[in-house]
Each structure stands twice: as structure tokens, then as C-alpha cells.
């Protein structure tokens, strides 16, 4: 692991991969995942090990503990994503088209939302746009931006609170 961390040694990483991949797969499968999902998680974990090798500190944890922690967290993330309730499908009667009042109301709401988004701090707006408009998961945003998950979640939460406040203020006017 130190060779991977300090020198980006591909041969050392290959040895790490060969050693840990089958063990991680068994570990993940014991946690309730199927073979295909387990392989996917193992790939993600080992990619994370390569990308985040600089974060490994042998004084804080053993290599195996560090890698298994990454695997456990990745498995929890996957389970949460799968168990997230899906939005209900809205019944839409193809024979009914929205009337002019509904179209105008939707356009006004869209304008208000854009104005409210414009009042957010840029980092909060960016996270909300990635999560809701870009439909990215927190993990995907983390991989894209390199920001810690806690920072991403905080920015989204604070941005949504501010957005609610701004929209409420606009409605009250």
C-alpha cells in the first residue's frame, strides 16, 4: 500500500487488487449483495483505493481495515440508494391538456425558482443543481468535484433551507 501511496506503483496495486478483490467480494456478499453487485462494489472500492491512496495513514489504520471500511461504506451507500422510495407516478390523462392558467402559473413558478436559485451562494447552487437538476447522487458529486460527502450534504441542506425561505418570501409578497 505504501508503494501505491508514495510512488503510484501499478504492480503493487495489482498485488493489492489480487489479494483483496476475492476477500472483499465474499465480505460484500455476506452483507446481502448478489454476485454482480458485489463485483461492482469491489471495482468501485479498488478504484477508490487507487484514487485516495494518498489518504492512507498506516499510523491510523491497517491496510485491510482501511480497505474494508471503504467497502462497508460503499455497500451502505448502495443499499440506501436501492431502498430510496421512488416518486409516485402521476396519473396523466393524455386527453386533457393543461389550460392557459396552469401554463402561466408553471411559468411564474419557474421564474421564481430561477430567481431564488440566483440568490444562493454559488457553491450551494452548484450542489443543488448537480443533485436535483443533474440527478447525481452525493457519491457521484463527490467523485466529480472531489469534495467530502459531508461538505456536499451540508451545502445541499443549507441551500435547500435558503431556497425554501426565498420562495416563501416571494409568495408572501
From TrEMBL:
Sequence ranges assigned to domain RNA polymerase sigma factor 70 region 4 type in this UniProt record: 112-163
Record flagged with keyword Ion transport: no
Single annotated GO MF: sigma factor activity
GO BP term, example: DNA-templated transcription initiation
Record-linked PROSITE patterns: SIGMA70_ECF
Domain of life, per lineage: Bacteria
Annotated RNA polymerase sigma-70 region domain residues: 20-84
Identification of the protein by name: RNA polymerase sigma factor
Lineage: Bacteria, Pseudomonadati, Pseudomonadota, Alphaproteobacteria, Rhodobacterales
Amino acid at each position: 500500500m505504501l508503494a501505491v501511496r508514495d510512488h503510484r506503483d501499478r504492480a503493487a496495486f495489482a498485488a493489492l487488487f489480487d489479494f483483496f478483490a476475492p476477500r472483499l467480494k465474499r465480505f460484500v456478499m455476506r452483507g446481502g449483495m448478489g454476485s454482480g453487485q458485489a463485483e461492482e462494489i469491489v471495482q468501485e472500492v479498488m478504484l477508490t483505493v487507487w484514487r485516495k491512496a494518498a489518504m492512507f495513514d498506516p499510523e491510523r489504520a491497517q491496510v485491510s481495515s482501511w480497505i474494508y471500511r471503504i467497502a462497508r461504506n460503499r455497500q451502505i451507500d448502495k443499499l440506501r440508494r436501492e431502498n430510496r422510495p421512488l416518486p409516485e407516478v402521476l396519473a396523466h390523462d393524455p386527453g386533457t391538456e393543461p389550460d392557459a392558467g396552469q401554463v402561466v402559473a408553471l411559468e411564474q413558478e419557474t421564474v421564481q425558482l430561477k430567481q431564488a436559485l440566483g440568490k444562493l451562494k454559488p457553491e450551494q447552487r452548484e450542489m443543488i443543481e448537480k443533485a436535483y437538476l443533474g440527478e447525481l447522487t452525493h457519491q457521484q458529486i463527490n467523485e466529480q468535484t472531489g469534495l467530502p460527502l459531508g461538505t456536499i450534504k451540508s451545502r445541499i441542506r443549507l441551500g435547500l433551507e435558503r431556497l425554501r425561505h426565498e420562495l416563501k418570501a416571494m409568495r408572501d409578497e
